Amino acid sequence: MVLLSRIPPLVAAILLVSNVAVLAAQDLGGGVNIRDIMGGAALIFRRPENPIASNRGRPGGGRMREQDRIIARGNAARSAPSPRFSEAEREYRLAAQSDPNDARAYAGLGNTYIDQSRFAEAVDAYREAIKLEPAYLDAYLPLGYALVRLKRLDEAIEAFSAAVKLDSDNPEIYNNLGYTYNHTERYAEAVKMCQEAIRLLGKTGEAFKQGFQVREEVLGHSYKNLGNAYLGLRQYKEAIEALKQATATDPNSASGHFNLGLVYYVAGHHAEAADSYKRALELRPGLAAAHFNLALSYLSMQNQTAALEQYNALKTINPAMAEQLYKMIKR
């Protein structure tokens, strides 16, 4: 989220009408991400894997065969074509009762809760798993996601920071820290995290473990988060360069072009801002905030006729936003 007090009044109006800070869920590469609807900067989250239904290789491994069968039943219920969440929850609870020191049981419960958007319960379950097994990486990542959904951002930063200590070469975790730092207005720290994500994604001769397509998605979001951080720091040149990289990585991202337009506008490059908003509208026709911001770009270039054209387009899409725009045009 960009601090409105640091931005000129007209641009603050852009942010307000475009709902930059609203969160939404979206599919991404077999997972889910939370992103700013207009800004497009993503918190990347992938559906947690089931806990391993074998105690082999774990402390005391090989001594709890029945426990493994209970975990396996919970996994099967969760992973069924039509997930049987109540059954999965029952089995994982049984596993926790059978062996209160088995972190897998609590991780399984957390997974079942997060699948159902029961985020507060998921947090409690993952924290119990981590209390039993502090190096349980697969619990930290969904814990951070659940905390973001609950808007407990400082706690989310703690969870992602712990995760990065366990998996220091994972660019997705650095991206998520960058996203969360942005939303707590800790922009300098966000810059560092995003730069590390980008560095890891570009390491020569090292393929990102989840494949080229996902690498490009993560890279695009890392650049968007980086651009948002620089915008928060009012380092507009750097913000523009980061967002240009984001749109080069994913040229079909309407949100990337939208955010680039915003930074161009803040930096006083109104013609470039207009071009970015027009590109966003080509990719996502009917995007109300892009029409609004494009009109303001035209107003800054003293082109009231073009601004009125955007007002007319906006009237049928979002009448309330159109009315606000008309008042600004007629000042």
Tell me what the structure shows.
The chain has 331 residues and is mainly α. The protein contains 16 helices and 3 strands. The protein has helices at residues 9-18, 65-78, 85-98, 103-115, 119-132, 137-149, 153-166, 171-183, 187-201, 212-232, 236-249, 254-266, 270-283, 288-300, 304-315, 319-329, and strands at 23-28, 31-36, 42-45. The protein has a 3-stranded antiparallel β-sheet with strand order 1-2-3, sandwiched between helices. A hairpin with a 5-residue loop joins strand 2 (31-36) and strand 3 (42-45).
The tally of helices reads 16
Unreliable sequence segments? 1-38
Separation of the first and last Cα atoms: 29 Å
Main β-sheet, in a few words? 3 strands, antiparallel
- The oligomerization state is single chain
Percent helix range:
55-70%
Question: Number of DSSP strands?
Answer: 3
Shape: elongated
The helix/strand class is: mainly alpha
Helix-strand pattern = HEEEHHHHHHHHHHHHHHH
Mean pLDDT: 85
